[in-house]
Fold this protein.
Amino acid sequence: MIEIRQITDDDDMAAAYAIRAEVFIDEQDVTLEEEVDGMDDLALHVLLLVDGAPVGTGRAIPPHGPGSAGGSYHLGRIAVRMPWRGRGLGVVVVRALEDLCARHASARGGCGQVELDLEAQTHALGFYRRLGYTVCRREFLDARIAHRQAVRWVRRVGG
């Protein structure tokens, strides 16, 4: 059974941090200082569970500025534990983040579309392209890993 939910408590956040540490720090040699960037308190987070076990996570940082209804939501820290990859669960995480951003934007007012952006590791560009993201920036290094920026727009709920 697959469940995806917005993180609203410390236990779920601890599970998300454990997944991120396993994927980014242990597998990809990202340092703790690079992984913990101080943005988690501002972000919307999701947790993916399979049969009650946490296996995936991701976050979206809303646009900043008092009263700002526009701007881009920045998706990131999207991770699925290695044994669970290749089963379409990354798609579930990304689509849940997109839906969460659309609902969040609608609650803030306005109509139309919500802009999403992310910094994809270059090995994952095909994954994001299949989900409708457009790659729009030259390659750059983040935590010594090659990335490219990608963007997508989704309709706001009721927009």
Q: What stands out?
A: The two ends are 32 Å apart (CA to CA). Helices lie at 10-27, 32-35, 89-107, 125-130. The first helix runs from residue 10 to 27. Residues 11 and 17 are 10 Å apart (CA to CA).
